[in-house]
């Protein structure tokens, strides 16, 4: 029979005999004594720093993803919006002369973004010439306009409607656009634009 | 340097002298080789110094003892987990220790043949005379698991001794 009690008594006696050697204990005492006499250990919080760094990395990744996503979304919606305006513009051109609600809306939108050019080739042509650095844009006396003046002129060309009769006006400012051919613009003090191109006159009411 | 243990201030050097044997025992039982056991003992005391410097104190001596045993067992785990430490020196060196004891029962050597959790539980229960609840805290497990380790450990010891013809 296995005498469990005796077995574990023997176990205790044998375990008692397993002792660290005295030199090891004294060396350990010396080492610990030396270690404890050193200044306070300032334990660098590696774990905390690692956690914070991980969180920051995740936040940065989410941020970059969100910004990227937002830019992509904006680009898509911008393209969609431009396509919509273009389509409306084409529809409005197709319905030229009919005073439907749709065409008014298209004209309004086109005008509001300076895109009357979509429905009016003359204005588009003028804008293109102003943008073209090889085209000389000058005032009545032939003094060329600088870039700011060109930009100002371009921004003033927001057309409300085309009119058939020449308006009465007090004074006008004249600009000459000289490229392969010449276009003369007269902007009256009561906001009309008269375009002289190859002896043909087109009149617009400006916004 | 002193450490606060309940109401008492105890010199850390005295703690080292007092608990070296206990930690060496548990480290030998866990690691089964002398050099790793010595490393475990020194690392445990170094950790104690570090904790005391950062303001740690102990409710009483039992608390200190349990803390030291827990740290030693865990430190043993870390050392074993290092691949380069998985050497087979263990059992031979513990046999040498058992031979040195010149015991007729070889009880210590039989216990050392058990799986590590069984032998640690048996050591803490039979040698350190800890309760299963205290052992559970030290081994970071449940008291029921400790009881199971003890029960299965005893069964295995009995089987091994029967197989070797020690008991009929």
How confident overall, as mean pLDDT of chain A?
79
Hey, roughly how much beta strand do the residues of chain A contain? Answer: 15-25%
Class of secondary structure makeup of chain A: alpha+beta
- CATH topology of the largest domain in chain B: the name is Rna Polymerase Sigma Factor, Chain: A
Q: What does this protein structure show overall?
A:
The complex is a heterodimer of chains A (207) and B (168). Chain A has 6 helices and 6 strands; from the N terminus they run αααααβαβββββ. Chain A is of the alpha+beta class. A 6-stranded antiparallel sheet of chain A has the order 1-3-4-5-6-2. Chain A is rod-shaped. Chain B is mostly helical and 168 residues long. Chain B is 71% helix and 5% strand. A two-stranded antiparallel ribbon of chain B has the order 1-2. The model of chain B has no long low-confidence stretch (mean pLDDT 82). The A-B interface holds A 1-2, 4, 6-8, 10-15, 17-20, 24-25, 28-29, 31-33, 35-37, 40-41, 43 and B 1, 12-13, 16-17, 20-21, 24-25, 28, 37-38, 41-42, 45-46, 49-50, 52-54, 97-98, 100-101, 103, 105, 107-108, 111, 122-123, 126-127, 154, 157-158, 161-162, 166-168.
What would you say about this model in short?
The complex is a heterodimer of chains A (207) and B (168). With 207 residues, chain A is α+β, with helices and mostly antiparallel strands. Chain A is built from six helices and six strands, in the order αααααβαβββββ.
Name the descriptors.
heterodimer; A: 207 residues; alpha+beta; 6-stranded antiparallel β-sheet; 6 helices; 6 strands; B: 168 residues; mainly alpha; Rna Polymerase Sigma Factor, Chain: A; 2 domains; two-stranded antiparallel ribbon; 2 strands
């Amino acid at each position: 029979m296995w005498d469990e009690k005796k077995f574990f008594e023997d176990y205790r006696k044998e375990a008692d005999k397993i002792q660290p050697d005295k030199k090891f204990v004294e060396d350990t005492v010396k080492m610990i004594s030396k270690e404890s006499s050193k200044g306070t250990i300032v334990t660098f919080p590696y774990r905390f720093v690692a956690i914070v760094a991980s969180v920051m990395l995740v936040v940065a990744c989410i941020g970059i993803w969100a910004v990227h996503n937002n830019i992509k979304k904006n680009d898509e919606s911008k393209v969609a919006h431009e396509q919509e305006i273009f389509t409306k513009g084409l529809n409005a051109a197709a319905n030229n002369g009919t005073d439907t609600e749709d065409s008014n809306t298209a004209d309004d939108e086109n005008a509001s973004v300076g895109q009357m050019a979509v429905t009016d080739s003359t204005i588009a042509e003028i804008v293109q010439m102003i943008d073209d650095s090889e085209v000389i844009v000058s005032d009545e006396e032939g003094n060329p306009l600088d870039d700011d003046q060109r930009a100002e002129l371009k921004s003033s060309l927001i057309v409300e409607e085309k009119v058939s009769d020449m308006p009465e006006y007090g004074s006008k400012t004249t600009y000459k656009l000289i490229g392969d051919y010449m276009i003369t613009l007269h902007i009256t003090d009561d906001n009309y634009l008269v375009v002289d191109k190859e002896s043909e006159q087109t009149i617009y009411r400006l916004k | 340097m002193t450490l606060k243990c309940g109401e008492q201030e105890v010199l850390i050097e005295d703690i080292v002298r007092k608990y070296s044997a206990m930690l060496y025992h548990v480290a030998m039982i866990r690691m089964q080789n002398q050099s790793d056991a010595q490393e475990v003992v020194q690392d445990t005391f170094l950790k104690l110094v570090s904790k005391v410097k950062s303001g740690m104190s102990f409710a009483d001596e039992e608390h200190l003892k349990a803390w030291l045993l827990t740290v030693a067992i865990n430190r043993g785990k870390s050392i074993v987990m290092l691949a380069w430490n998985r050497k087979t020196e263990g059992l031979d060196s513990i046999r040498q220790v058992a031979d040195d004891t010149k015991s007729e029962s070889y009880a210590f050597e039989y216990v050392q043949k058990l799986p590590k959790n069984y032998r640690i539980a048996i050591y803490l229960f039979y040698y350190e005379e800890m309760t299963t609840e205290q052992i559970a805290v030290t081994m970071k497990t449940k008291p029921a698991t400790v009881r199971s380790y003890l029960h299965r450990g005893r069964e295995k010891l009995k089987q091994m001794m029967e197989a070797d013809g020690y008991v009929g």
